[in-house]
Amino acid sequence: MRLTIMIATIASVLMIGGAYAQEGARAYFPVPAGTNDIELTGTFVHTEAGGVVANSATITPTYRRALDLFGDAGTFLIGIPVGRVSGSVPFFGDEDTGIGQGDMFIGGTVGLINAPALTPQGYVQFKPGFSASAVGRVFLPTGAYDSTRALNLGGNRWTFEAMLPMSFTMGSSLVDPTLTTFEVIPSVQIFGDNNNPGFLNVASQAPLYGVEAHVTHSFSPMVWGALDAYGKLGGAATTASGTGSDQQSLALGATLGLTLSQNFATRFSYQQQVYSKTSGTANSIFMATAAFLF
Fold first, then answer.
1. Which residues of the chain have pLDDT under 50?
2. Residue boundaries of the structural domains of the chain
3. Rounded distance, CA 163 to CA 32, Å?
4. Residue range 10-61, pLDDT digits in tens
5. DSSP labels for 23-59?
6. How far apart are CA 32 and CA 143, in angstroms?
7. CA distance 165 to 179
8. Furthest-apart CA pair in the chain: how many Å?
9. Distance between CA atoms of 63 and 34, rounded to whole angstroms?
10. Which of 101, 158, 193, 235 gets the most CB atoms within 10 Å of its CB?
């Protein structure tokens, strides 16, 4: 049983430096077509399970450009996480990856329902409501990886992630200072195989399904907040030493957003695992994002 928990834990830790699926509240809030967005996100994760205690800290610079895709809103994005993972793993002892690169990702979005490409003037006049978009990202096996270690920044495998962000927005316009949104983001991650897993690294993994839910409200033109929920299901991982069980977990959290100027905004979020089908596990995540639009 302990080995099964360890396998699931290692699989979760590997996602820290690579395919980390949770986006957060208002991550897909529309912007006018032609807008460039440079984001810097710090992610700090603490995980305990099956004797494994792991901490990670990554900084992910991301470039995103809003596009007009034949009248529908779209984006292109690319990002490369950099950071380190350290911790203690039974049979392996203390490990520290040192500072290195995680798995680079590239992807984009396209509007499906009530998500048109907007000019700056049209953006102010647009009447929000229900909208939906499709998101796809590919994570490349570019991260630092050593098969003799249990903790790595990279997973030595390809990963494809698909999401379907849906939102219902209440307000007179997208710039309404008392805007309220209800967001649901179902997702699935499909993993390639790791052809050099070593003893405990993930060799293969079943698809991991997730869902995020956020209720957000703007308290003024500069301040907004959110209540957040994150669920995971599936993702059983196989190593040379066996196959772990499916993940089933729920985390709750909150987000604070600050719009400091027309071109600069920040977002801070914290989440804490409140349920896991595997007893004796703990997981907490803090994320801070700074975004510059031009």
1. 18-19
2. 2-293
3. 21
4. 666 556 554 455 679 999 999 999 999 999 999 999 988 878 899 999 999 9
5. --TTTT----TT-EEEEEEEEEEEEEETTEEEEEEEE
6. 33
7. 18
8. 61
9. 13
10. 235
